[in-house]
Amino acid sequence: MNKNSNLALVNLELSRAGQTLLLFGEKAVFWKEQQILILSDLHLGKSHHFQRNGIPLPDGYQDLTLSRLEALITFTQASRVFFLGDLFHSKYNPEWEYFRIWVEQLKSFSTGQISELRLVKGNHDILPESIYQSAGLKLCDHWTEGPFLFLHDRDGAVSKKLLMDRKPALCFSGHKHPGVRIKTSARESIPLPCFHFTVSDLILPAFGDLTGLHLITPNNQDEVYAIAEGELFLIPNTSLSTRNSKRFRP
Fold first, then answer.
1. What is the distance, to the nearest Å, from the Cα of residue 128 to the centroid of all Cα atoms in its chain?
2. Can you give the pTM of this predicted structure?
């Protein structure tokens, strides 16, 4: 348990449906009124999964991911944490026990601060429910609270029906690992993770340190906040160019 994180946590405050949302350059959202930290697609256990299948990935990614999560919980003083799916990458492996012990230490260190860890299940969350529950996780396929709906994949058939029936002010989801390609010169560009706002959605970037990107093409009315080295940039839809982007500092 890393009690003294040196992370410089950069955030941007937005208002949606009368609620305050803090977007963090560490790829998470904090719902201020409800003290809920929201993140998606950690894909814990992925290193061991690939190693077991003959792909020599180094260890340490899970440590980085959980260290960042711990820093966010400490900084925000969140009382609840929502994981929007794909918490663990695949079948059970020893990295789950590392996560379970980390949760125990977190709850002990926070002395009652954390009242709820909720997993909105995603397509990678295939472990038996008893294993998730052993780490104190509450499970659901979707969750509604206040004006918001929480899902893993907003494009699934069940999700689309929920959106039609409930008409939330904003739907939070993950799954897509959204990213944008930023031009750095006439011939060069760089892909970056991003928060993708549409009229009715907020699609979160993948929180895990061993995940890929799906490059998006935003519509004119969308808002895209790219992330580079823990900092946030508002990317104009008319031109994905670094010289036109707006950089957010604490």
1. 22
2. 0.87
Q: What are the tens digits of pLDDT across the range 41-70?
A: 998 876 555 546 555 555 656 788 899 999
Structural class in CATH, domain 11-248: alpha beta
Name residue 73's amino acid. I
d(CA 125, CA 17): 30
- C-alpha 21/C-alpha 31 separation (Å) is 5
Per-residue pLDDT reduced to its tens digit, 221-250: 899 999 998 899 898 764 454 334 444 443
Alpha carbon of residue 115 to chain centroid: 19
The per-residue b/e assignment along 208-230, b for 16 or more CB within 10 angstroms, e otherwise, is: bbbbebeebebeeebbbbbbbee
Q: How many CA atoms lie within 13 A of 70 on its CB side?
A: 22
The answer to whether the beta carbons of residues 7 and 25 sit under 8 Å apart is no
Domain ranges in the chain? 11-248
Q: How far apart are CA 231 and CA 25, in angstroms?
A: 5
